[in-house]
Amino acid sequence: MSHPPLFAINSWESEFFSRPIYQITNEGESLEYLPKGGKLLCAKVRASDIDTIDYLHSEGFHFHKGDMDFFVSSRNLSAINKRVNNFLPITSASESDVDSMVNRVGFLYEDSRFSAPYFCRKERDKFYDKWIENAFSKQFDTDFLVCRDITGEVAGFITARKISNLDVRIGLLGVYPKYQGLGVAKNLILTLHDIFSPANLLVATQIENTNAINFYSKLDFKLRSTNYWFYRNDSI
């Protein structure tokens, strides 16, 4: 590590969670120059960056979560057979879809980094509700697809955004419990691929989420990187 990491306030998260939240950034201030007290410090670090991890430990940071970042090429997805029976064709989310999903999203992300002891369950659920509302209005994520059963009930959903000419990043992928194991998530990903082909798909998931890791591996997603989240709560 050539120099200590720099931190800057995350304006969106700070406003949303009503408290100062700082994250590692390329431009910012070193720890000693940040305001004293009353803030949450977050650091996402490559698992291989031992020097920065050692520094964070020495400054009172604690490991909170890890995530794994995957990608799959358009060519590999094109070779996978798709579509499942007993579901309506996948379409863009409607306003009524979003209304039916509010207060029914956060519990799908128990492994989220927005979790205790730094965030309460209510804050987590509110965050994911806001994510789907923003995706519907094309803020941050620009595409929001839903899969419905034959009665029209939302079975699962996916949000995504194009980050370059060659890459599309999946934001959220969720399937409600009674529809899990029926091919809904696979169908959502392959439909997203149809829309953005020949772009590659990228996605991150928490290390603890072994079901998601196994699912992506079966679709030939390859590991790009492993990252650790370290937090320090100066509010207490």
From TrEMBL:
InterPro entries noted in UniProt: Acyl_CoA_acyltransferase (IPR016181), GNAT_dom (IPR000182)
Domain N-acetyltransferase: 88-236
Protein name as it appears in the record: GNAT family N-acetyltransferase
